[in-house]
């Protein structure tokens, strides 16, 4: 069906009307309508059929909210509504059937949104604001005004290098300091700590997405993600350890696609095994933060991961972050580490057991709990650098012109480094 409300522009008509079946929903709706500056008398008792009868003899409003609760065949009845609506009408449907397929069919028919009963004032307000924005948004697309979505993956060279700490801290900074709607995707499906760090229950959102990739859409994202704040949402899991991960990775790609539509920033906690099993996860990632330590094992694995990134994800801009830096006690010096990986370490985080412990006790991210600490300042610098990645730099990286990868054939001499460590004074 080609609904007429998707074409044309509204004339001089009422800004809003609603046809709602029950008083409980009307009691939620009327105060929001008054808040929007509209007349509460435009909230009529009665559902979709009443709307069709009324609009067949009067002009349709700019924004129409209609209740489908008493409709036996919502899609067919929507056709009848389309016949009496004037071009330019934005329609918001209300119903009590929680079905993704119905939602998709309604949106495909031209409906702006579908709200599930019982209504909440917040959901109604958001839907009406979005509908009203249709009449005020620029008619022509302005590329300069469009905000570019940035996707960042955080990978640890070894367990315990602080990848999850960086993931949660960066997400929190993007959302709170930089006011960017941010999605945190914790892909450590069995042992992830993203929700735990934010003092949240992980829910079943990520598990449901993996089990049913076809269900993933905007509505699924809205319902499955756990909100940590107004601008930060997380999708994670604590899958049973007797349930192996059974997926071809399509769910993760679909999630990334939906995040690009709904958020300005995506931060992915990406375990090494996921990087190996699902390399396509980095296809649309802009930046990779590689968390490491000045140890032999981390140096070896940093070389391997940097080499993999150079061969398989040359378009990403990689930042190497050394964590838990203790000059007097580390296995490898910074100079030897950089010589081994054949590139500079971009950022260094000092060893800060007190700060990490304090954050855990407060149920906060490290960056939030330690704003005055040196480590907190470094992570804020990392966040600002990621946001500042320009389109030109990304294009250069895609063309393979940006340096930064390390080769497995580089001169990484484990024996030599061990010898240096053995000769070092106690």
Automatic annotation (TrEMBL):
The keyword Magnesium does not apply. GO terms for molecular function: ATP binding; ATP hydrolysis activity. It comes from the Bacteria. One of its GO terms (cellular component) is cytosol. InterPro entries: CheY-like_superfamily, P-loop_NTPase, ParA/MinD_ATPase. Signal peptide: none annotated. Keywords: ATP-binding, Nucleotide-binding. GO terms for biological process: negative regulation of cell division. PANTHER family: SEPTUM SITE-DETERMINING PROTEIN MIND HOMOLOG, CHLOROPLASTIC, SEPTUM SITE-DETERMINING PROTEIN MIND HOMOLOG, CHLOROPLASTIC-RELATED. This is Pilus assembly protein CpaE. It comes from Novosphingobium flavum.
């Amino acid at each position: 069906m080609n609904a007429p409300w998707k074409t044309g522009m509204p004339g001089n008509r009422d800004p809003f009307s609603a046809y709602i079946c029950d008083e409980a929903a009307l009691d939620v709706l009327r105060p929001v309508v008054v808040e929007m500056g509209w007349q509460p008398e435009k909230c009529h008792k009665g559902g979709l059929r009443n709307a069709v009868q009324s609009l067949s003899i009067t002009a349709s409003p700019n924004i129409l909210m209609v209740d489908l609760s008493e409709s036996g065949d919502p899609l067919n009845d929507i056709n009848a509504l389309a016949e009496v609506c004037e071009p330019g009408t934005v329609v918001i449907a209300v119903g009590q059937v929680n079905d993704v397929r119905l939602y998709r069919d309604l949106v495909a028919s031209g409906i702006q949104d579908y709200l599930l009963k019982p209504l909440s004032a917040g959901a109604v307000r958001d839907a009406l604001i979005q509908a009203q924005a249709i009449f005020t948004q620029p008619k022509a697309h302005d590329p300069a005004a469009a905000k570019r979505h940035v996707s960042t993956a955080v990978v640890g060279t070894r367990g315990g290098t602080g990848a999850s700490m960086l993931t949660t801290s960066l997400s929190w900074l993007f959302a709170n300091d930089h006011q960017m709607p941010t999605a945190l995707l914790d892909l450590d499906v069995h042992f992830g700590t993203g929700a735990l760090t934010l003092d949240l229950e992980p829910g079943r959102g990520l598990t449901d997405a993996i089990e049913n990739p076809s269900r993933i859409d905007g509505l699924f994202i809205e319902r499955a993600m756990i909100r940590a704040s107004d601008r930060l949402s997380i999708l994670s899991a604590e899958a049973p350890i007797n349930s192996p991960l059974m997926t071809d990775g399509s769910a993760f790609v679909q999630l990334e696609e939906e995040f690009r539509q709904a958020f300005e920033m995506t931060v992915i906690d990406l375990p090494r095994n996921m990087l190996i099993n699902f390399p396509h996860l980095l296809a649309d990632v802009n930046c990779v933060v590689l968390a490491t330590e000045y140890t032999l094992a981390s140096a070896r694995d940093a070389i391997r991961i940097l080499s993999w990134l150079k061969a398989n994800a040359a378009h990403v801009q990689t930042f190497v972050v050394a964590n838990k830096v203790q000059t007097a006690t580390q296995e490898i010096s910074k100079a030897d580490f950089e010589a081994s990986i054949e590139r500079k370490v971009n950022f260094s985080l000092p060893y800060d057991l007190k700060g990490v412990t304090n954050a855990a006790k407060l149920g906060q991210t490290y960056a939030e709990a330690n704003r005055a600490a040196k480590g907190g300042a470094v992570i804020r610098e990392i966040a600002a650098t990621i946001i500042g990645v320009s389109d030109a730099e990304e294009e250069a990286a895609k063309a393979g012109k940006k340096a930064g990868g390390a080769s497995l054939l580089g001169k990484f001499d484990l024996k030599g480094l061990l010898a240096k460590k053995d000769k070092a004074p106690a």
